[in-house]
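Look over this record before class:
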Amino acid sequence: MYKFVFLLCFFNMHMLILVNTAANESSDAKGIIGAIIDSSSRIGQEHAVAMNLALEDFNHKNNLTFDLHIRNSQGDPLLAAIAARDLIDNQKVQAIIGPQTWQETSLVAEICSKKSIPLLSLADTPEWAMKKWRILLQSSPSQIMQMKAIAEIVKYWKLYNVSMIYEDGDSSSTEVLSKLSEALTEVDTKLNNVVAIPPLVSFSMSQQLEKLREGQCRVFIVHLSFPLTLKLFETAKRMNMMGEGNVWITTSTFTSLVHSLNASTISNMQGIIGVKSYIPNLWHQYGNFYHKFRKKFSSENFEEFSYEPGIFAAQAYDATWNVVDAMRETNQKGGQFLLDKILLSNFTGLSGKIQFTEHKIAPTHTFQIINVIGRSYREIGFWSDGLGFSKSLDQNASYSPSVEELGKVVNPTCSLRLRIGVPSTSTFKQYVDVIQDHSENVTSFKFKGFSIDLFEETVKKLPYHLEYDYFSYNDTYDKLVKQVYLKKYDLVVGDVAIVSTRYEYVSFTQSYTDPGVVMIVPVKSKTGNRAWLFLKPFTKVMWILILVIIVYNGFVVWLIERNHRPELKGPILHQTTTMLWLAFYSLFSLNGDKLHSNLSRVATVVWLFVALIITQIYTANLASMLTVERFEPTIDSIQQLKNNNAMVGYDRGSYLKRYLQDVLGINAENIKQFDSQESYADALRNKEIAAAFLDIPEAKIFLAKNCKGFVQAGPTYKIGGYGFVFPKGSPLLHGVNQALLDISEIGTLRNLENNMLASEECKDIIEPGEDTTSLSPTSFMVLFILTGGTSTTALLIYIFPMNYLCPGQRATWSLMMAVIKSWRFQKALFPRRVHNVAESSSNISNLPDLA
């Protein structure tokens, strides 16, 4: 079978060789070049006419005779290889131009490499090929830069879903996809879909297009061969995919041949935008090429609708002129010498600047933008790399980064109406509340809450208009998120936590709440056993210091007074009890008239002053503790929950169950779900659960409403946070994120949250950190030094009599004693609130006045 196919191909090629040889051979030829084209295609037809014209013009100008041998490969790589071998072995060509596809070029390059025959390819050629075959040159400028132009056009419809349709097996596809993706990223856009179309006619084009029908507003970038593109638009028209809401953009592979289409074919592609290589208006420099091409093309291809030359004709003309000019300068020498001369070419041809760099002509940086409309197309402007869009390329041209500079090319607006899923099972209705309305015998829904208000404020900040409808969803949040992935909803608005497992299917906006999960537990009294509450106003150290200073002051008074009062003498036990009595009795009464020594009176006065201050502060602190209840958490750590094997609660339909089990290590049997705020509070009060785990936004609402009985305990676990849900790669996501940031910075987000919490706010909430602590000696150190110092001074004076004092010290002491004596006679004016209690003491009241 293979032998039969090969013989058939060889026979066809042999017949073509005989025909072309008879037409082109010349005995006085100065050089021979070969060409391999596909005469069945419009590109091949333009190539053949342009090459012959180039040879005629060159021979006429230089009075030389060069021969051109053209072979028709019919687009078959095998026939192209056979043609190349015939041109080299039989026709003795010194260089070959063509073919126009990479599949053909790769086989021909292998044959030319063995014979060192330069091959000027008219197809897009990968970099590695020119390194492998040094005789291979890409003589047509690379069109890869057009992807930047396309990306700038797509930027105009950034809300649309962008899809790429390319030809499977095309050598340029990988580079094209990479460059397009990179260019779209630079304009904050992404490819949503990529579809490869096989170059065979046996497949169903409609099946391929069906994959791209979903969504409302779509941009299709088409990078296919000319025949496949025609079939694509014919199928799209039949499937009603060419109307409003669909933008079609074609690359130069197709657009550069739009001029060849008839009105019937163009009717299938109304509204498409095309990018094609720009051909400078240089026809007049080459012997009126335009008119000569039309005349020759019409005579050879009378069945064609249009006889206009395109970029492919210009490129073939330039490649032919380049080769014969190099052959003339090298005296028709072939091989490596001719290749080097071609590489040194530097002239301006029909298609632009001809200069090779690394075996390739510099890529095109200026493209023409067309719009197919009516029975033909119109040229609406240009795009130049680094400059942007303009309506002309003259010296006075103005450039703009937006395609709007070129006017309204197609209907730029698409009625983008979003379907928004809203959870109806939210536990905390303050965030999202779905209310059923059964009025007028029709069930409808009303959507309220913080998340709804925030989304609507965000939409107002967008630079474009969005229309949307809310839809209630009554199931788990995980399933709701998957509805976006399944394209039932365009996005989700509600109290949806941002967690990694959901990122597998969708994308989230930035969090609009504080991220984190906290533990809520009941509170218990901090004061513990109230029977000992009277000791709480002072610390233990304070109580000890008070006792020490009391005993010390009593000892000083007893020591000074015992020589004047016999009842203070006697057995040790009697003296000790009497001393303690004097010490504590002085807390309630001065009894200066009962004391015989001015020294003891001074010590007692100072101590009574200090004791009065201490007792007043004690009374105030104790009153505060008795009237204000202090609380602390019943549970303060996860470990305590585990040790107690306690039950905990979480929000129904939440991701928290997985987190409690897998991360915090709580037994699954001890985890219980709840579906309302009230059920949480009741379960905590009834000790059905020991703790509830809530997202921070939920915890704020719960504690605002249940402020007295519950408190946050333990650390904050940094997960979650609420966000809006979008499909992966959604063009809306970037704009919504920016709008969220804007309303956060101007305070709108904070105001919405404050308004939400205001109705639940509890004014008398007691923060766990607020506490009236027991007082320590630090607060009374000056008072203790004063009384202790006074008593010590009196003791020292008693031990060391007045005779040991210097005159100055005696005068000071005498003055102090005079003041005390004066005060003694005014004792009736001194407050006796506590003194009257001591008057009943028989031991003290009967003591004689020895002063």
About this structure: Residues 1-11, 13-29, 763-772, 827-851 have pLDDT under 50 and may be disordered. The longest strand covers residues 376-384. DSSP finds 29 helices and 29 strands in the chain.
